[in-house]
Amino acid sequence: MPNLATAETSAVLASMEAFFAQASPGALTEPFGAQTALLSSGLLDSLSMLQLTTHLSDTFGIEFEDEDFTMENFATAGQIADLVAAKLTRSG
Asked: Which of 1, 9, 28, 79 pairs with 45 at a CA distance of 20 to 30 A?
């Protein structure tokens, strides 16, 4: 049986991939996954960060706090997915 956190992380990554495919068509030039760089690649900027966090909040029923918005939490897709999975674990 898969680990619940792993299942949640996979769901978040899939949701993020769909978000970027719709919000920035053609921007995903390589396979999307946990190691996908978001900030350093330019895939995520201040506006798209707001849009992405709104999407994730609506999709997964979580809230982002001010202290969540760090370079460490948003550098890669996996780091965001881990943050969301941790919030889901705490709330559920």
From this structure: 9
Q: How far does CA 42 lie from the centroid of its chain?
A: 15
Asked whether the beta carbons of 80 and 7 are under 8 A apart, the reply is no
For residue 83, what is the domain's CATH number? 1.10.1200.10
* Residue 81, domain extent: 4-25+33-91
- Inform me whether the pLDDT recorded for 2 exceeds 80: no
Average predicted confidence (pLDDT) for the chain: 90
pLDDT tens profile 34-58: 999 999 998 999 999 999 999 999 9
To which residue do tokens 């996996």 refer? 78
